[in-house]
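thread: overnight batch results

M.L. [08:02]
morning all. the overnight job finished for the chain we discussed friday. pasting input first so we're all looking at the same thing
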Amino acid sequence: MNPGAAPPRGGRFEPRVAARRRAGVRFKWLCRFAVAFAVASLLVLLVHILATGLPTLSPDFLVTFPSRFPDRAGIRSAILGSLWLLTLVAAMSFPLGVGAAVYLEEYAPRNRLTNLLQTNIANLAGVPSIVYGLLGLAVFVRFLSLERSLLAGAATLSLLVLPLVIIAAREAIRAVPDSLREAAYALGATRWQAIRHHVLPAALPGILSGTILALSRAGGETAPLLIIGALTFIAFDPVSVMDPFTVLPIQIFNWTADPREEFHALAAGAIVVLLGVLLLMNAAAILIRNRYER
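M.L. [08:03]
and the structure it wrote out:
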């Protein structure tokens, strides 16, 4: 406060520095306690899952189909279904998301309609996943008659992760310096040539890392797939996009609902596999970003 300034109305200003410092210290310790509690809860959960699930992991567990008998059950169909689903989601969401981001950042005029689109995309990223499941059930399963197929599940999850891909791609494209575009224009390049040969290659690390993180979210979703009617028990390999399917989260959900403890141990083993897949995807995103940034 300026010493020469008049005191505020209502009385003399009292800084109360000591009281504010005590409040700051209390808030700092409250934040530390919240973080410690969250980390401790996560560690307890991980230790329990690893202690229960690691003994069930074996090559037979990974290559055997599910069964009603715990000693014969595996996650082959769930793994294959997850791989099929993530591949289809990537094929749908990546070109659409990058194309929308390029349009919004490079071509769209700055007006109210563009601002409305950007606001809606940001809001869609926070919509609960079960809402996308209801949308997929109405549009893909019933209206388009895709039934309980891999294509219907992939289209539903593509809608779920598309706002995340668009936001990540827009941030990566926006981070490219304007001098790169201006240099391309100075050499006679068109806008599309500048985007294709200069902007997109420079933004590729951020786009890929954001897409992989969005796919890792899709790989862990259960509610939308249950809504559209994904099966909980499949004893065959999916061979086309119109086949019924199951995925690791649904297989885990099915086993945890069984009252027998043996299936709970199998569910813990499937959780370990799913965590490993998600960690690998996140590690791949970090490696890709660091490699291309160098």
